[in-house]
Write the structure tokens for this entry.
Amino acid sequence: MMTSEMSLRVAVIAALTLTQGCIATRDYVHETLDPVTGRVSHSEARLDRVDSQISGLGTRIAGTETKLGQVEDRVGKAEGRIGEVETKADKALADLGHLRLARRLVVDMKDGATFGNNSVNLSPRARKAIDGFLDARKGDLSAAEGVPMIVVAGHADSSGSPDVNYEVARRRAEAVSRYLITRKQVDPLHVQTISYGESSPREDNKTRQGRAANRRVEILVYRDALSTGSGAMPAKPTAPAKAPPQT
């Protein structure tokens, strides 16, 4: 009887001890795991925030890549335009290398200012012809497009010797030049006088009318201009070489 009672007491004590141990273990686990769980939750919250930031960063990166693509397109178009400009510039430079200053004939008066036989005096009829020519060609003679060059060329018939005819034609040209400068206020720096003598007849010197037409002074108006063409252009007339005296 006492043995059974002792066994019962031992069993109760053991059960109580085991129960207290379990309770103590649970308390220990709770005390140990609760802080860890809190830290895990906090870490998960931080990870969520990091994921959100990464997502936003990805969106910004995508937007930046789009903008970069647009910038590349603009750069490509700009390079294309630069290429076109460079091509035009190269062509302009090539053309510039072929530029030359040429003297173009604008207008001329090849008849009208005629002279009497062996005469170097400017007749009223010749003055009237020159005045009519100048009045009709005011636009061509203006300096709006550059100062023109006026060439006064004297001619003679073949009645005398080449030397005499050359000198007579020169004096006729000088008479017209003086008239242009003193009466028509033409700048003397832009008037050039030359003589062709008998070397450039307009009519046949065998007839009286032909010789009268050949005793003339021509007025030719030129203007300097840049040209890239390679074709022949009207050039300023040059005085022929003076013929040697006949022996």
Remarks:
- Residues 74 and 80 are 10 Å apart (CA to CA).
- The first strand starts at residue 100 and ends at 109.
- The helical segments are 2-97, 124-136, 138-141, 162-182, 208-214.
